[in-house]
Amino acid sequence: MKIIHTSDWHLGKRLEGKSRLPEQEQMLGELEKVARNAGVDAIIVAGDVFDTVNPPAEAESLFYSACLSLSRICPVIAIAGNHDNPERLSAPCGIASECGILLGGSLNYKNVKEPFCGGEGFVSLKKGGERVNMALLPYPSLARMSQLGYLPQPEKSYSENVRDWLSLCSCGFTASDCNITVSHIFMSGSERANDEAELGTAALLPLDVLPNAHYSALGHVHKPQCVSKSRACYYSGSPLAYSFDDGGGKFFNLLNTSPASVRVEKIPIGSGRRLVTVTAKSFDECMEKLKENVGALVRVLYDSPVPLSSGKYAEMRGCENFVTLKNIYLVPKRVAAEKKTRTDAELFAEFYEAQFSEKPSSSMIALFNKAMNGEKI
Questions:
Q1: Which of 36, 171, 299, 310 is deepest in the core (most CB within 10 A)?
Q2: pLDDT exceeding 90 applies to what percent of the chain?
């Protein structure tokens, strides 16, 4: 079979007040085109469909209309991430299942309809003589799992509890078929964007929590990557860049499955505006840099002692591609100037106090001065 792995759509997300919904709509249209051209048999969305647990109506409308369009090509499986409300995501599951859409906010898949069959924590999809089994674990916070009736064992660590839940979900795996783990978790060894905050409340999980599978389709980390080739553990990453430090390409992972293996192909995503950071030393240079990056979304680092007037700042904000301005001049330049007026001994005393939470003694200062003067100690 051919299966697309994607995740972290974050529908409804804004960047410093800028709506990304038009880009998200474009991305979903591109996903539909890729699925149709590649003859895809299923699409997996590994969590964080929405950006908030209470998404705006237009984001929900975009999601359901996109799922309906995609389901005319192949079945769609979407699980809840930490940004999603699992109950809200799966609320229309009855109507969705009639269209071949599986919305996973729980671990109960016993009553799924064709083309799926399932049980506790897993679903299977058949095509011809091939079957793919999928262990589906939505974002497994302790609170959420408790609400679903899967109480964590207090004597066990978070990692051990997640291992138990994933083991339960993998009960549908078979030796003769392709087995895929789908979850929204934070794996040790994954690489995040520089300004990506701690991902949820869960601790980093070791690779050995994952059951033996031909492929692990994960969501949560926005940078696309293979965390472990031996465990076939992949993050598809977010399809759009959602922070200025989220550089690099964006991809859909296209899986070519067989009963014995999964071959992964990266399909580049062309949708979405570039996020660009520029440095400027004057208002005129700010405007010039904005004109040079028409079509992108621009963050300006302002490196000047001359503050922008409210009128000039308003003019910058009037540029469609301007997102935010950060003043990088004041603090580092002031600190450097202050250091020039202080003696080496004063700087040493400050450093010593920061390291050891006490001021150096007068004898230690005297020793430092001797060393700085090249005297024998």
A1: 299
A2: 80
